[in-house]
Amino acid sequence: MAEIQHHNNEKNGVFEIYEDGVKAGEMTYTWAGTDKFIIDHTGVDEAFNGKGYAKQLVYAGVEYARKNGVKVIPLCPYAKATIAKNAELQDVLS
């Protein structure tokens, strides 16, 4: 079972995903003002490919945006494609 941890400060943040205590991947973002953040990178270690972890990270970012009433600018190609393919995620787009 994967576990997602979120670390955030006033400038940027990261969602990290762990499997059995081992970091499997991360999605990083940078704040653009106080009402939106830019997803700039999503990556999962090759050893964990095919488990859907990158998608889980994007969904975690979207949930965080919703809970905090902020918008998302997905500059990361993976995050941009994932949000484009899933209409239920598009309400957070800036």
From TrEMBL:
Keywords tagged on the record: Acyltransferase, Transferase
EC number(s) stated in the UniProt entry for this protein: 2.3.1.-
N-acetyltransferase domain ranges (all copies): 7-94
Class in the EC hierarchy, top level: transferase
Molecular function (Gene Ontology), one example: acyltransferase activity
Alphabetized InterPro entries for the sequence: Acyl_CoA_acyltransferase, Gcn5-rel_NAT, GNAT_YJDJ
PANTHER family (UniProt xref): BSR4717 PROTEIN, PROTEIN NATD1
Protein name as annotated: GNAT family N-acetyltransferase
Protein species of origin: Kaistella montana
